[in-house]
Specification:
The structure is a homodimer of 214-residue chains. Helix content of chain A is 31%, strand content 23%. In chain A, the strands form three sheets. A four-stranded antiparallel beta sheet of chain A has the order 1-8-3-6, with no helix packed on it. In chain A, strands 2-7-4-5 form a four-stranded antiparallel beta sheet. In chain A, strands 9-11-10 form a three-stranded antiparallel beta sheet. Chain A folds into two domains: 128 residues, Jelly Rolls; 77 residues, Arc Repressor Mutant, subunit A. The first copy, chain A, is an alpha+beta fold. The relative contact order of chain A is 0.13. At the A-B interface, helix 1 of A face helix 1 of B. Chain B binds a DNA duplex (30 and 30 nucleotides) through helix 4.
Chain lengths: 214, 214
DNA sequence: CGAATGGTTGATTGTGATCAATTCCCGTGG
DNA sequence: CCACGGGAATTGATCACAATCAACCATTCG
């Protein structure tokens, strides 16, 4: 029973604002507050979502109480398409989020939509494989270094903000928050990065980090 | 530098038999001997493949010499489709294999093919996520139990053969061969399975194994 | 200002990696 | 058919790294 369980739903006081138009079928733009659930694993997969702004985690809750984050969705990503009838993962807002709600295309009727969907699926596949690569082996340092480099896609933007908590990172990398903290500290001591605050950091030695992950 | 490096290519003495017909473009059926490479990571992704018989591993080789297996393909699986121009993974025959070589569909020209491709991609995505779930966390026992249960898709066929080596399993689960061996031994001692030979086993307590993975 | 949440740090333990021998298969050739 | 050889697998001893348990800081928010 890990600290992951503490990640409680805050669904009580109506955090989900209604669509920002009177005709939801025309502008299905939704907003979600941090830690709010967009959809749940096992629920009927009626909609797909396109993330406009914010960060979303795709995760799964295990019987023993631990949580596993399988993917972080960034703006532009489409998520929630499934081979079957049910969502395979829960989707939750990490930060405040704006999403577009999309109808699942009927592939038999609209084969053209399949081309787009295909692109989404392939990109999701690449991401899932990259994640598996990260987890597959290697020390905490290798995983965390890979994670940080993946996160900073655009290179020259040297100051970067971590939108997620240590617990999120830990559940994504299959480590504990203590190990995340210590490993970050180690990177700092080695002069590879600088922690401005706990959530803002500057990568000083990109090469060095890259050398770690192999 | 792990024992994975010992996994040497045996590409010297022409193991790849030619297509079994005089007109390869009509019946592109290929055979591969164990450990033979079907395609290599980084190579130009000109073809897709459908596995007819045998077992294929999709893997990646790291700079430090270790190997990571990301997926095992079973008969019926289609593999080798990519979002980009290059293969993201190497594909190697684990056992003797028969594969169909397929042309990459031109999605712009043939949107109907996109529907099929979409199905393949979604199935591959599900597999990749299942793999990430397996790796994400949990003890060696949890990983191995999950692996064995996944492997035995058809339930009542109680005697099952492991087509791959311990090294393959280790590289798939992010563990070492010693740990695989010890964990299997532990399962045997707990009466959960019986090892007829190193490669043939019988699951005695399916429930127990399932209870482990969570 | 005080509570709460998130993050860091320290001490200890446990699990799996590593190093090192054997043993077991299984195919091969005498 | 049996002996042999070599890769695969098991087993043992030790070590290293990350999990766990437990305080302790720092920020934010009411």
């Amino acid at each position: 029973m890990s600290a992951s369980m503490m990640q409680e739903r805050k669904s009580g006081p109506a955090l989900a604002r209604p669509p920002q138009t009177a005709r939801p079928e025309v502008q299905p733009v939704l907003s979600f507050a941090p830690d709010e659930t967009i959809f749940r694993e096992g629920g009927e997969a009626r909609w797909m979502y396109k993330l406009v702004d914010g960060l979303v985690r795709g995760c799964r809750f295990h019987a023993d109480g631990r949580r596993q984050i399988e993917v972080f969705h960034k703006p532009g990503d489409v998520f929630g398409f499934e081979p079957g009838l049910e969502y395979g993962l829960s989707a939750e807002a990490v930060t405040a989020c704006t999403v577009l709600r999309l109808a699942r295309p009927d592939l038999a009727r609209d084969p053209h939509a399949a081309v787009r969907l295909c692109g989404y699926a392939m990109r999701a596949l690449a991401a899932a494989q990259a994640h598996a690569r990260l987890l597959g082996r290697g020390s905490a340092g290798q995983r965390l270094a890979g994670f940080l480099l993946d996160l900073q896609a655009e290179p020259r933007q040297e100051l970067m903000e971590l939108p997620m908590t240590r617990q999120d990172i830990a559940d994504y990398l299959g480590l504990t928050i203590e190990t995340i903290s210590r490993t970050l500290g180690q990177f700092v001591r080695q002069g590879m990065l600088h922690l401005v605050t706990a959530r803002k950091l500057r990568i000083l030695d990109r090469e060095g980090l890259a050398a770690l992950c192999g």
